[in-house]
Amino acid sequence: MLDHLTVVKHPLVQHKLTLMREKDTSTASFRQLLREISQLLAFEITRELPMTTKRIETPLCEMDAPVLDGPKLALVSILRAGNGLLDGVLELIPSARVGFVGLYRDEETLEPVQYYFKVPDGLENRLVIAVDPMLATGNSSAAAVDLLKDAGARDIRFLCLLAAPEGIARMKEAHPDVPIVTASVDDYLNDSGYIVPGLGDAGDRMFGTK
Ligand code: URA
User: Which residue range forms the structural domain that includes residue 32?
Assistant: First the structure.
């Protein structure tokens, strides 16, 4: 069972995160680093996937070899920045089913507004990994998890790159059953809802928008 919060301190994760934080890192490098880091984080969040064995034949003999058990897991990207994490995780778990939750943050109230929701069938029997690089206020993350639970999901994990203490507290209050895996818990949220020290707007940095 994963703890409610896991901070992945692995040196490769921390080094790549520092490169991503630097303001002069190019869009191309940012995207590549996000892809790499997402795979390292995915490694952690999938640590306790159920396993079974399958009878196989190596060139030398037969053996009962370990394979993943159960229905294919579902990755759910919280648009739009979630897509940056999704790509890397999908490379690692190519048979995963994929869903999207479209939420944007009202710039004044900082409250989430839903504009899209499409998820795989049978969520109740799948491990669902929701991905969003920035756990800031936690409002949109908590709202996305509400929607996933309404759609039947019972076993949900949340994967992010950076988290603010405020976002973690919000998720813990709203969804204590949803473990969070992140590369860092930063200091605080500023008045505009940005994580400090953070890395700026993750969507803008990965897509080259402003
Ligand atoms: N979303 C971002 O992209 N960056 C932040 O710092 C907070 C929310």
Answer: 5-48+75-207
